[in-house]
């Protein structure tokens, strides 16, 4: 079979295909999209009977029945977590002289260099400052 001349594709990049107006930046927001139907609206999702009955049961709950919105719990029996006043990491130690909590020996060396006003500022951040008169 011989190929016919009019069935052959044109060569890529012919000067007739290039338009000087299209050489600038290409903005996809302005360009019309042929695959998008602007008149399309998604179907309204209907609820089945099981969902409707569950919603009715939730509305009829008494106030004394615990739910995630009204649950109350007693105070925790675990000890309160202590955090380093300087770094915010877990505090394993407390300086007996200043009362500052610290994480490791490096931070303890830093605490030793602090003056009284700075120590009071760190203590006031956790409401443990001593008022000096």
UniProtKB/TrEMBL annotation:
A Pfam family that the UniProt record links to this protein: YL1_C
Main location: nucleus
Localization per record: Nucleus
InterPro entries: INO80C/Ies6, Vps72/YL1_C
Domain of life of the source: Eukaryota
Example of a GO cellular component annotation carried by this entry: Ino80 complex
Annotated Vps72/YL1 C-terminal domain residues: 82-111
Sorted UniProt keywords: Nucleus, Transcription, Transcription regulation
GO biological process, one term: chromatin remodeling
Protein name: Vps72/YL1 C-terminal domain-containing protein
Natural source organism: Rhizopus microsporus ATCC 52813
Upper taxonomic lineage: Eukaryota, Fungi, Fungi incertae sedis, Mucoromycota, Mucoromycotina
